Amino acid sequence: MSKLFLVRHGQSKWNSQNRFTGWVDVELSEQGRNEAKKSGELLNNLNINLDFCYTSFLRRAINTLEIILKELGKSDFKFIRAWEINERHYGSLTGLNKDEMKKKLGEELFKKYRRSWDIAPPPMENNNENEKLYSPLNKNIDQNIIPKTESLKDTYERVMPYFNKEIKAHLENNKNVLIAAHGNSLRALCKNLFKISDTKINELEIPTGNPLMIDFDNDLTIKNIEYLDKSREKKIITNQ
Question: Which of 86, 137, 182, 204 is most buried (CB neighbours < 10 A)?
């Protein structure tokens, strides 16, 4: 049997300002660092060995993982960074305030851009100032495949091939894996693992800095799903 831990990074500075962040490489807020520390404490209480850890190219996820590993006494643990589990790219919405955009776009269109399965916001224009705020790790990505906007479906189509190629085999071999990533990259993964429909995935919310523990049987059948911090858990949607 294996365990998969999914941790959305702690609150970022742009989260605290209610801005669309996407691929912009912002830092954790003080609250976010505290959430990451709490995640590490909760994981440490389980006394479970982690065999593999993955994170994105974005510092808010990387730093979350580093804080967790420090709490586990594993600061020297070698983890893997993958751009494929980056946050969804929010296109022309990047950097904008969510409340202001809801008023400007209207609630229906705003909800489609933010939560629909296959509708992406308008693409980011070339030489947008926010591109200067991308991770320096982006130099390792083929520049021709860096998106200008993404729907959740687009995010899914890079998350799942990576998961199936690089991570799934560890779970099949009874290894414990932790992924520190982002709200939408984790929603994409959960859509597949929990068999959530295109119409229901918009209802799945993942709180920052609260580890979601998934227990697998030997055939990768899910036996149990639960948040470690019960005070901050969100509804878990499966088979809908």
Answer: 86
Residue type present at position 53: C
pTM, rounded to two decimals: 0.96
Mean pLDDT over residues 111-138, rounded?
94
pLDDT of residue 7: 98
Nearest CA to 133 out of 7, 6, 12, 25 is that of 25
Catalytic site positions? 9, 87
Residue 47 backbone zone (phi > 0: left; psi -120 to 50: alpha; other: beta): left
Contact 58, 135 (CB under 8 A): yes
Residue 225: CB partners within 8 Å, gap ≥ 6?
A: 194, 212, 213, 214, 215, 236, 238
